[in-house]
Amino acid sequence: MLDQPIAQIKGLRVEFQTKDGPVVGVKDVSFDINPGETVCVVGESGSGKSVSSLSLMRLVEFGGGEIAAGELMFDRREGGQIDLSNAGQDMMKEIRGDEIGMIFQEPMTALNPVFTVGRQLTEGLRVHKNMNKKQAEERALELLHQVRIPEPDRRMTQYPHELSGGMRQRVVIAMAMACEPRLLIADEPTTALDVTIQAEILALMDRLKRETGTAVMFITHDMAVVAQMADRVVVMFRGNKVEEGPVEQIFENPQHDYTKALLAAVPKLGEMTGKAYPEPMKLMGVEGQKIEPIKGTEEVILSVENLTTRFDVKGGFLRRNVAQVHAVEDVSFKLNKGQTLSLVGESGCGKSTTGRAILRLVEPQSGKVLFDDCNVLDLNQNELHKVRQDMQMIFQDPFASLNPQMVLSEQVAEPMRNYGLASGSELQDRVANLFDRVQLPRDFMRRYPHEMSGGQRQRIAIARALALNPKLIIADEAVSALDVSVQAQVLNLMMELQADLGLSFLFISHDMAVVERVSHQVGVMYLGRIVELGPRARVFENPQHAYTQSLMKAVPIADPRQRKSERDLNFKPIPSPIHGLDYKPEPSQYLEVEPGHFVLTTDSGY
């Protein structure tokens, strides 16, 4: 029977035992997955989407959960159905990897660091397919070709740490596809990847699905990825399925309030076309929202001139300098008071290093950073301490930047204590006001970071950055790890604060739709240089540099009728930023193509 679903989840309920009694991860979820179909399960952190997939693999028991009720029917390759919810672990070992493959979210934890890529790829083939060493290696090479990994022979002998994030994720996909499973479960496989690599991996998975007829259960919280991949969508909220339907129907005619709110919170590329200034997003269910454009001023607050930062590479017996990583190469830009300048680009392009070099968290080689008419790079430690009162940073991972042993009110009060700005009851009042500003209840002041969700922790990080009334905030991927609706709230919060307090933001991100929403000016970085710089509308609507154009092409659009095909994507591999000590790069030369819109004319390597 061809029309029979490969997997049927019926009335699944999963419970986790905790010291406070049982916690229900999934309440009563049912859906089918048909041959050759991609079912996207969407929802935010804690909605139960990963728990559903781990139940199908029967891995949920290893995480302290148990399947309390329901059936997990799976159609075996040899024919005949089996209920996985009560299959023995020996039977599951046969099925895992052979008939059900899984791609995990974090490729570095899914690969074994002590075995070569070749050994990990051939292991499953030798166990499940009874191949000998030579046959398994031939098949592994074929798989690496399929996932478009350059020089597969070399990769077979390398270890996971020698590959980039995108390469590792491809190896994990090759491992999951090795035995041609009937069902492939992909759990947030592109969340941590850059736009261009994400686009390639989504196109790759789609192509492999068409060629092999595998059914795919794709778990994500990114609605643009859903629009790109799904045939059918299952929306989950707090352990329940709230809506299911074909992808066009979910996007064009959502029925459930939660689905509507989820779609309203997604920033879409092209939404800001024709608008001169950024403005907050309209969110559903939020009363009394001010949606006004944020103009800012024409007064320059930060001017960066020819900033260069390099890191030494040590090697040889005596650990001498043998080469340098050219992380930031001859970067110049100006940021106006009350405005946002965004730096975009892929991992390793130097955008975070630029932000850190401006604050002197890493020491630059050369250049000038003029802030309020003083050169930050010439200051001694005492002067730098004073200037840092006006320049603050919000880091990508709030959990790593907050102290796990301090209550939240202390963490927000600490900068004010450091600078002697307030004490006693005045300090307590100011902390309470900051909690109000970032829309957190005051009873959270006694909590610790581990008692908060990711979005709430990021709000604390913003409250702490605001504590000193800074003029400039450098936000390094400040919303990239957040769920869609939380991300929208945090972005709106940052924009409201900008409008009220006249803050300037240097916004570092790889999410083009978010950048389009918040920016006045945009700088596109590639291999340590800014290749294009100008007003947001000009860079997005009239990209001139080849790299900017390919970056725009790669962004998935949250509309199932505008899907990207593999033909649209032709990216060049990024060359290495490591050069010998005698390497002298050319200075950056720019051509002004429109007023204020500059394009790099020096060879950028793209």
TrEMBL record:
It is found in: Cell inner membrane. It comes from the Bacteria. Its main location: membrane. Belongs to the ABC transporter superfamily. GO terms for cellular component: plasma membrane. Residues 9-263, 302-552 form the ABC transporter domain. This is Dipeptide ABC transporter ATP-binding protein. Keywords: ATP-binding, Cell inner membrane, Cell membrane, Membrane, Nucleotide-binding, Translocase, Transport. It is a peripheral membrane protein.
